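Incident log, entry 3
Record: Peroxiredoxin-like 2A (405 residues)
Problem: checksum mismatch between cached and fresh output.
Input:
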Amino acid sequence: MEEFVGNGVLKGLLPKLVEEGWDDVPTLKIMNSDDMNAINMTQEQKVGCTGRSYLHDRSLLQYGDKLESSGKSLPELLNLSAENLSTQFGMKRGHIARFIDRTSACTEPLPKSHTPTKTTGAPSRHNRIYKIFESVNSKKMQNSISSMWKSSTKNDKSLEQSLPDLKIKDGYTFKGIVAAEPGGSRAYDCVNPPPVVDKLAPYSALENISVQKLTPEYKIGMEGLLKAKAPPMKASELWRDRPAVLLCIRRPGCIMCRAEAHQLYSKKPIFDALGIQLIAVLHEHIESEVKDFWPRYWGGAVIFDRGMGFFKALGGGELLKEKFLSGFIFNPRAIANYRRAKAMGIKQNLKGEGEIKGGLFIVGSGRSGIAYQFIERNFGDWAPPAEVIEICTQMQVNLLSFSIF
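Fresh output:
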């Protein structure tokens, strides 16, 4: 939050923002004009908030104070020449290209079926998100997921296992989706892509995993809590009351892992509105790496998977591993993933074990089961955020329909 607000017109407003619940960057970025008026923002503060949101999407916040002090609005700044941006604000050539590109490299389109709103926890029957859910036709939603999924895998039919038949009642276990990007050919055809397990992990493979919570969900002033060590717990305690998206991180210092985490966490207000919690899973605990990763790239809870149970579940009981040479140097898809992450201006380091592949799980509350599973086949593969949101939305639509009837 402090980095986002900077030293400009928003700095004095920070206590008011926190008091009113606008206490993290993803939530702050969805403020509309009514929200700004409600806390008596001045015109300069409104312009500053809009401009900083634009810069944050492009990882260019380092220019926030200089651009803001010019007194120019975002449209005026975007109309400046590359030479003016360089001479007046010291903007680097590559950063200028990213600044004037109106389509953000850090964002993805949201599914049409979802409209974000500022709320947390499970939606009540009177608030806006509940009304959205109430109006959604489940069949249309299923068709939307099906269409999106087929279009994203039209070049590799083997990737599609099934569409989820989502039901939340009487301990029903989901028929989930196993997803992975195409393996692709390795350079020189001397290395074959690794096989991917095409079966959804059973719920029993996750519920008894021993984990340790390293960080809570981020709020201002909570950095000191990193020093407190929580006792081990069963993974099922994490989603006992609320569904969870669990992002299994290959290495928190990896530029591609950081980019994926940032991309997913930027949609936090949507997950909050759906009552879904966001959790990052690490298979290695290096304290300095946790501090560098949280909350700069990920503000959700972070847990340590002591026995690598989540990572083994992604591989059907075995860890999915690949050497750097075959998995990255000889893999054009992994190199493309690296370039995508590098375009976001994210820093990296080489600390820790980086050959154990990660992925993502969406797990329903209680014992309702696994709704979705994504496997990092190539280093740097992302579960598409729009797809994750669609699954979470459908999950909650069905939950609400059961609670109503």
